[in-house]
Amino acid sequence: MSRIxxxxxxxxxxxxxDDAVKRAFNHFGGVKNFINKGERVLLxxxxxxxxxxxxxxxxxxxxxxxVAKLILDVGAVxxxxxxxxxxxxxxxxxxxxxxxxxxxxxxxxxxxxxxxxLPQREGADFHKIQVSKYVLxxxxxxxxAKLKTHGQMYLTMGVxxxxxxxxxRLKAGWHYNVGLNREKFASLLxxxxxxxxxxxxxxxxxxxxxxxxxxxxxxxxxxxxxxxVDALSxxxxxxxxxxxxxxxxxxxxxxxxxxxxxxxxxxxxxxIDGDFSPEYIFPDVKIxxxxxxxxxxxxxxLDRLMTSKPVHIPGLCIGCGRCAAVCAAGALKHENKHLxxxxxxxxxxxxxxxxxxxxxxxxxxxxxxxxxxx
Length: 374
What we know:
Helix content: 25-40%
Strand content: 15-25%
Largest sheet: 10 strands, mixed
Number of helices: 13
Number of strands: 16
Shape: globular
Radius of gyration: 20 Å
């Protein structure tokens, strides 16, 4: 059985966030039910890149502070950690407000570096996955995810947040190697999630993101905080609450292919408590349409035809070059604020652009398929 708590929370007022986070832990037996005195606890935030807090790209620092304070209160040692895709960790963590929290509470805020191999798990699709050694050395991991849409993976919530445990640009390498097959990439995310096994997940959906997430979308006031041990069930329930289709969610399809019980939502025993009914649908959420997955099988040449392509918007470009720097495939060139794409494969350029100067263009085949789907 999976238990999920959804709390209504419409702002980031620190005292209200403190109460909401305490309520989340207490619903599952309290912090002491998960954390013991003296343990080192990794707070895995969402720090994809260096963005202003108001963009709502990263986990809000008020939630990080509330969780860290509760862990300190039981005599454990929390530390804030993540690994941005390309930005300097110091710059990104300062913009996100994480260093302020760390300095206030006297705790560490560190980058997830020094890759080591994640222990192999029976039934895994991927082996030789490298994550930061600090992930494996932590006694417990609290997963502090952000509720956002995602141009490549449809949605990013509890499970996807653990991909940040892969250090730095190794993430871009995975994007390139797994590439166009989103279901295969989702299977990688499952292996990372199941291998790391976070102790507890809290999802920041107070103000999340919709549209062209995870960095170039628009803030959306979901007004929700999620809490659970089983992040996979929570992600699937939220997919439906966002008005999205599970069949379009690569993570769901990968779990279904593995016959994971959470993919049978109608038959799996899920207990949902709190302030939101599982039948609730958030209004007017903009879901990315990067590829229609409902009508055609995963065949390589069809995948290429179905995949949306990145498009450069020169008028917005500031010439920072981050797009070319992060491209593991070397598939684009950046010259005088103009981009030249060989092909679109992993969308890292879109994710890392700080000024929304890269967007997606649906292929003609996607447009044709969507005419029949709608």
